């Protein structure tokens, strides 16, 4: 008897092959995953296993006509996907040769085993968007479902779940043989086995995975006869043997098989809620250095202590920092002071100074972590390739924001990418053949220094909605898995290979910057008048954003008889949240009482209570003034190092005009307007 067994990868075809061969008795010829083209002459006593995705459906159907018995093995697509993901390393040379990817995968498996619901499958590198792994897995399962639907009565369809449960009576009747489960498998193929069970997906999927995968897999499940039941296990449980220990064994055996050095994978650590495990910009840069033989590296990072300079492995390294004057606010001042104490301030270089310092010097790879604000990012993107060797790479962080709230212009607590993605998209508009973005770590943009067009206008803009709808077109998005495979050959042109040109991208003119204001703190010496020589001036954007303004009295500022604060230099509405006075030791000495504003010395200012929006100060001229009523004991101490902190938000011109009109309306009209609003 000739028997053909067909199934997709990781569906138990190996176990079934040996079970059928054993039932056939004698010494049948067994073919394990040979291609149809190599199986032209088959003895009468033969068992053949084909992997469905290795051949076309039509070729399998034609080939199957020469067999006495034909078995199609199917499996729940959800279990199939989990099994494929964990076995992927065995068949992926690029992943197998990348220690960073293996360590992240291994660490995620350990976290998944410890707390199954805390790690989604989408966090594993092969599942990162865009996921070729997911797309190809779905395509193969869909094709198998279509093949099963068209299979005639000459094919016996067996479920994997029946195979592992030993429910083989129908198969035995079809073959006319006493097929027994648990046949002995050749040791060289035993590594493919993992749980030998069914329904494992209920312990591996998270709620987020169900949301992503149900629309993709449900139609295939229906076609294969599986119920649309997506209930997860009430208490998810994963064993080390079926997760990270299985992965360790595969990595060890496969690296040895292909001649790679042994790789130490870390032991499990106690689970820490909220801890992030993912590939980083440093992993991407080190991969570029290894694969393309780069020797010289420059890091140009924000001056906030977030450098990963020590993680980069390169023959020659150099670092410089960008000043971030706009972000020296109250929340970060102390942190930046600590950074300053640990950094050589000679490395603090604005872009022109950086270009001047390294004039005539060239690097193979430059990393830019921008200030995230335009046009600063645009200018850096256009200028830094001048310091690259031909064929070198500029690496740009934060080019793929996952959520719109990360893209606000002003720095936000926690993750923040600002406008970097817009500047990179515009660079790519003119240099599509030389730009891609790796999806990890908020998007790591890569710019190949080959035939770059850098003298382009930077006045174009996009919205986040435009970007999110077509992010692969705007930033050339590839997953880390695609990055590994494209860089595997060591040919940098392959990394930047582009698909056919998409539809034209849309940009529009950048909106005009918000109107800028200035606010001032004056101090008056005994017997003198207020003067510009005894004043500090700080910019104040009129865009509604909350600003923390620090006025630190300079040397020679005392003795002081009185302070005066001018909140703006135009007619504007301002919401002041706090005014504080601190001594040189940073002790709070006085604070403004907003509730008692009526009895304080405000000039050219009217107050307007906008309800939930807060209390607004409306400047009625271009010279609003506030004279804090400070106790004599404090006035006697004022001098150099004392600090006035003002937390305030100046409203855009239109809002200011509307509030001014509302405040100036007669009471009855004002009440009517507020009711309508």
UniProtKB/TrEMBL annotation:
Gene3D superfamilies in the record, alphabetically?
P-loop containing nucleotide triphosphate hydrolases, Vaccinia Virus protein VP39
Which SUPFAM superfamilies does this one have? P-loop containing nucleoside triphosphate hydrolases, S-adenosyl-L-methionine-dependent methyltransferases
Domain of life, per the record? Bacteria
Q: What is the lineage of its organism?
A: Bacteria, Pseudomonadati, Pseudomonadota, Betaproteobacteria, Burkholderiales
Protein name according to UniProt: Sulfotransferase domain-containing protein
Q: Which InterPro entries match?
A: P-loop_NTPase, SAM-dependent_MTases_sf
